[in-house]
């Protein structure tokens, strides 16, 4: 399995996103370089695509497949793409507060720490559906890591399409995410324009 090993803070600065979107509380100490050159239309579109790929930890081949799937769905392709990415199991684990970052959520998922509807799932890209219950495995609940995470992140609010009891080890997907549930700035129409060339 390929993985992105780029430095988070450096990449966030390049793409112009806050590290808080990724769950990282650090800030870079470097001075931002002011570029005098105007970005071309292609560079703006590419930057937007790179931003979304980096946030969700998806590489090019998989991202392209998500786009092709989003294009075939009803509605706007850009919004469908974001919804497909948002319903990945690793993202849902992060949103429920079972991991501090999406990268950590992906690792914990691939190590088999979570169940969906009572069945163990170790595929980070698994798509959840409304009605699915995502829970920490019984064996993992007793570990110090998950106890600390639930205590520390248990108070954080979930998006409205997810439901989680305070200090509990499970959460439920109550609806599909909508465009206004995305908590970072992205111009998804630029990604559609890039791929439709």
What does this structure look like?
With 197 residues, the protein is an alpha+beta fold. Helix content is 44%, strand content 8%. It contains nine helices and five strands, in the order ααααααβββααββα. It has a five-stranded antiparallel β-sheet. Strand 4 and strand 5 form a beta hairpin. Helix 2 crosses helix 9, helix 4 packs across helix 9 and helix 5 crosses helix 6. The longest helix is centred in the first third of the chain and has 16 residues. The protein is globular and about 55 Å long. The relative contact order is 0.15. The mean pLDDT is 85.
Class derived from helix and strand content: alpha+beta
Distance between the termini: 29 Å
**What's the β-strand tally?**
5
**Tally of individual helices:** 9
Mean pLDDT: 85
Rg, nearest Å: 17 Å
Strand content: 5-15%
- Provide the helix percentage: 40-55%
Which blocks of ≥5 consecutive residues have pLDDT under 50? none
Q: State the major sheet.
A: 5 strands, antiparallel
Strand order of the largest sheet: 2-1-3-5-4
Coarse shape: globular
Secondary-structure blueprint of this entry?
Layout: H1 8-15, H2 41-56, H3 60-72, H4 77-86, H5 89-96, H6 102-110, E1 114-116, E2 119-120, E3 133-136, H7 138-141, H8 144-153, E4 162-164, E5 170-173, H9 188-195
Helix pairs in contact: 2-9, 3-4, 4-9, 5-6
